Structure formats: C-alpha cells, structure tokens
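Progress note, sequence design subtask.
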C-alpha cells in the first residue's frame, strides 16, 4: 500500500504532463499578458487624444467635423468594456477591433488636417503630442504583433493532439486574434491614373 500511492502519483503526473495541460496554461498566461500590453497601449493613445484635440481646436476650430469624429470614436472605444473575457468572445473582440480601427482612422485624419495649418505644426505642444501619438501607434503595432503570436501558440496548443483532448474536457477554445479589416480591398491591385497633360 505504501508503494502504490507514490506510483499512482507518478502515473497521474505523467499523464498530466503528456496531455498538454501545463503548456496550455503557460500559453494562456502569455496571451493574457500580451493582451494587457495591447490594452495598455490603447489606453495610452486614448489618454493623449483629448490633449491633441484641444491643441488642434485652438488653431483649426473650423475643422469641427474631424474633431467631432475623433471625440466620438474615442467615446465609442471607451464604451467597450475591455475585460480579460473579451479575448474569449470572437464577436465582442471583433467589435473592439472595429472601434479601435475607427479611432485610429479618425486620429490619422486629424493629423492629416493639421498639415494645412503651419502655425499648428510649429506649436511645440502639438509637435510633442504628435510625436507621442506616433510613438504610441508604433507601440500598439508591436503589442498587437506579440498578442497575435501568443494567440497563435495558444490556439495551436488547444487544437493539436493530444492537447485538444484536454482542451475539450476543460472547455478551452481557440482565442480571437486581430485580423486585417478589409482583406478583399487589400487583395485588389491599386488603380493608378495619370492626368492627361493639358494641350
């Protein structure tokens, strides 16, 4: 009897290590940490926007439509609860990604509009905020890439044999990842038109 318990524990430990349970847990933690970094960078961007809008408004107040779009897009992003469960719900994840994409697009339009105002481009506060926004966009790209890689490793671990059996028993499913918003538009070749010279 004394020898059976250690042998039984050894067999159970061997089965658990062979079923991928630990690896799935490691991959899940990596996904969660990567997701936290994505959210951290999105929050940084959202925090910069009111200051940027305020500075632009001082110089380009009549660009109200662009300023309103940025403000509304930021409000839409703030209205989505970015909880850890979001990465387990593909529908909610897609909604989150769409809102972040709209905010990024509105922010890009705001920066393009600023090109029309030399005094604004010369403003030190604006230049500093613009540099911070551009740096944050780069950080978002890096964080998203890390998240995509972590999700890929997790999804492979829950979909390959024998780990998929453990995942099925435990109820673990593949996680949502970032996708290109309009793959069909990207696949279409760009149309280039040259204006005919005036005669």
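Output:
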């Amino acid at each position: 009897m004394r020898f059976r318990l250690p042998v039984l524990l050894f067999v159970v430990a061997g089965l658990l290590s062979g079923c991928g349970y630990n690896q799935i847990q490691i991959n899940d933690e990596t996904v969660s940490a990567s997701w936290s970094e994505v959210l951290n960078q999105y929050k940084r961007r959202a925090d910069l926007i009111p200051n940027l809008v305020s500075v632009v408004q001082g110089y380009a107040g009549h660009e109200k439509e662009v300023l309103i779009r940025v403000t509304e897009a930021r409000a839409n992003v703030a209205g989505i609860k970015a909880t850890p469960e979001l990465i387990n719900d593909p529908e909610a994840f897609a909604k989150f990604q769409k809102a972040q994409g709209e905010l990024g697009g509105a922010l890009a339009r705001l920066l393009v509009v600023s090109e029309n105002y030399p005094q604004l481009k010369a403003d030190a506060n604006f230049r500093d905020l613009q540099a911070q926004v551009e740096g944050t966009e780069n950080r978002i790209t890096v964080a998203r890439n890390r998240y995509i890689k972590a999700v890929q490793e997790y999804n492979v671990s829950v979909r390959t044999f024998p780990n998929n059996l453990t995942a099925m028993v435990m109820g673990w499913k593949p996680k949502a990842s970032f996708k290109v918003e309009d793959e069909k538009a990207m696949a279409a070749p760009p149309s280039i038109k040259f204006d005919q010279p005036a005669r």
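The CA atoms of residues 48 and 133 lie 7 Å apart. Work on this subtask will continue into the next period as scheduled.
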